[in-house]
Design a protein that fits this description.
- With 321 residues, the protein is mainly alpha-helical.
- The chain has twelve helices and two strands.
- It has a two-stranded antiparallel ribbon with strand order 1-2.
- The protein starts with 6 loop residues before the first helix and ends in a 20-residue tail after the last helix.
Length: 321
Amino acid sequence: MPRVARPPLGYAFTLAAAAFFAVNGTVSTLALQAGIPPTRLTALRCTGAALVLLLVLAVVSPGRLRVRWREVPFLVVFGVVGVALTQFLYYVAIGRMPVGIALVFEMTAPVFIALYVWLVRREKVRSRLWLALLLSLSGLVLVAQVWQDGGSLDPVGVGAALVAALCLATYYLMGERGTVTRDPVALTCWSFVAAALFWAVAAPWWAFDASVLGERVPISVASVELPLGVLVAWIIVLGAIVPFWLSIGALAHLAPTTAGLVATVEPVFASIVAWVWVEQVLTGWQVAGGMVVLTGILLAQTARAAPVPTLLPETPAPLCS
């Protein structure tokens, strides 16, 4: 019996996923401030997601895990650049500037995509691309408050967030190509596996002092302290796996483009959570700039004549096709 699409449920799932990802930004900030480096935090998150995806596919549909040798180079680049580096650079960014601002920079990826397909692939793009580019650049100028001496944001954090946007754009473009010949869920699974293996080499597990996970960390709520391991578990389970599955569930009820557009509320949610939880206060100019950038992103999402992949690395196509 075919499944009946329920758009309200799809919107609810997408908004819930965005909320979980938003909360994860602040939880990750607390973990970074507690001393766990971005490399290790990224490795833990990627490895956790990879193990869950491998387990689920191995039980539900093991045949979808088959990989041909000629696919391996693509999967390696896809996983290392699109997943491992995107998440690592995001963590570098939120370690140096407010979570919501870092997300605004990172989510400019659709603008880079539209420019790439126009300049390199010679695809036809709608004229709204130029307005999207203008709004995005203008908004980023406001967010960075460049008229202040040296700007109000950490240059390394800004650079990391912008490179993360480029890596995320690479993920979208490679994913668009990869899903032509591969199952999207398996493709995402192997991308996380490649990311996990990359960090196993770049940040070897034997060099990780697991005892730090037992250290108690203030979580900025009254005088409550939790072991760092609890925060890391939150990041893996509620910051990756749960919103990942909510996003998958949403795609049974919404088109990917629609889900991607709704998901742009994540920087708004993240800014509110960070403001309430850890008092990351944004200036009026930064809030206004963020809204301008998000408007540009929404236009860029629909600038291509062909559909643009709008799913984040944590949100692949549905498990059941």
